[in-house]
Amino acid sequence: MVVSVEILKHLSRFPPRYGPEWGSGGIFGLRYHNDVLYFTLAFEARAHFIRDDSKRVYEFELVGEKPTSGGDTYNAVETVDEFIYFGGWVHAPAVYEGKNEKSTISFVNKYSHVHEYDTENDEIRLLWKDSIHHETEWAGEVSDIIYDPYEDKLLIAREDGHANLGIYELDRKTGEVKLLNENPSLKGALLHDTVFFGVGKNFDWGVREFHAFDLITRKWETFPIGPSVDGNPPVRPVLGDMESAYNRIFAFVRGGMFVGNPFNDEEMKFIRLLDFPNFYAPMRTNALPLGGGVLIAYNAHHDAVYRPLDEESKLVAEFTNAINAPSLLLYVAPPMVKVVGVFGARITSIEKAFGKILLGTNTTPNTGALEATPFDTGNRDILVLDEDIIQRRPPALTISINTASLAKASKFLGMNAFGGIPLDGYKEAELIINSSKDNKLTVYEYDLSLPVEGAYEDVVGIKSGKNIIDLSSFSGIVSFKLENPDTAGKIKIKLL
């Protein structure tokens, strides 16, 4: 425990500092390995390596000239033997082009990268970098690194970018890369001797299918998205992270998660979870195996349009800046999904170290391509929590939704159902609807029992005015659907 106290002395709060990019980055890649705590601070592009008696900061000068910016915004990190492999992207040097009608940054010097840190010798090696040297476009960022223990190589996922997207194999000795799958993929996870990847563009629709790579035969199989547990399809299932547990794949997306194992005849079914008419999602964070289950954050404000310039971007700004619920830390232990923490704008990274849970947090989201500043605009810090939060009663929670936003999401996105509220651990739960008209509400009740099963339905009559629905008689997870759009109502969910 002495080590933990000494390392904690080196942790700081990080206010806005120089780092040209869009809005705010965060603390990414938190990993405690071989007595070293690593993380990258973005957008400053400063990789930290902290020991009990020392602290080293690397500013990506091996990639190119300083001043650098960026670093990582998807938690691309892996450990093998004494090495920490960390990836992402970096501007080297960063070029801020100024502010007028559009505030921009040049992408000519933007590189995707993978580095190797030797914890035994305190040495950093640039293993690989890639750039297309374009003013407004960039090569796919490294968003995930997965170790292939059969070939002793690294699998690299790349989805965020304009060129060189897909899934690559990287030789960790020579730095040579080989394209394995040309489909854009943000994240993957190892299950038995196969690595599953979520395939699709996050800033388009999201996950469209899953590709599985057999590490032994080197063959690919493709699996479609399965049905939704409440009968209503997912909307914009942008991928946050993936993890394996219980011989199944868990893919955490906007609006819920996909769970299953197609090799055992279980479709990748969609479980609605924390689905609101906004961009609330498990984005720019990571899933952490803990106690046999999985810890995951669903973030209230991870990406947003700051200054809309036309009618389309005004709609996107409204969607991305609506805050209906705080960021939540969830513990997934089927058949339960339990809220274990309530936080602000976003949790960017999660790690287990010296008997504690470490959370990288941020007050500010990423913003759009034409909203660059010469400095990171967020306040970032590292919280230290006790591991027993997964055993405590869940914290009080309030969720507030305008029904007008539901009506708009239904019209423009085809979003009908909403919610997916985890009730496990709460003694009191109620839904309050201030309705502008008579209506009907369908309540779907389900849980995360495996294999995933369908929901039970209850229909509740809604009168014009205030309606209070006691949710304490339900268990597991509940989602909802209004029969008719209501452009002037209000919904509040209170959990105690």
Tell me what you see in this structure.
The chain is mainly beta. The protein has two domains: 2-390, YVTN repeat-like/Quinoprotein amine dehydrogenase (Methylamine Dehydrogenase, Chain H, 7 Propeller), CATH 2.130.10.10; 397-495, Jelly Rolls (Sandwich). The strands form ten sheets. It has an eight-stranded mixed sheet with strand order 17-18-19-20-24-23-22-21, with no helix packed on it. The longest helix is centred in the middle third of the chain and has 11 residues, at 311-321. The protein is globular, with a radius of gyration of 22 Å. The model has no long low-confidence stretch (mean pLDDT 96).
Q: What spatial form do the alpha-carbon principal axes imply? A: globular
Under the CATH scheme, which class of the largest domain? Answer: Mainly Beta
Radius of gyration: 22 Å
- Overall number of structural domains: 2
Biggest sheet: strands side by side, in what order?
17-18-19-20-24-23-22-21
Q: Please describe the biggest sheet, giving its number of strands, its sense, and whether it closes into a barrel.
A: 8 strands, mixed
| Approximate helicity band | under 10%
Tell me the name of the CATH homologous superfamily of the largest domain. YVTN repeat-like/Quinoprotein amine dehydrogenase
- Any idea of the CATH topology of the largest domain? Methylamine Dehydrogenase, Chain H
Proportion of beta-strand residues: over 45%
Q: N- to C-terminal separation? A: 34 Å
What is the arithmetic mean of pLDDT?
96
CATH architecture annotation name of the largest domain:
7 Propeller
Q: Helices and strands: which structural class? A: mainly beta
Low-confidence stretches: none
Distinct helical segment count: 3
- The total strand number stands at 40
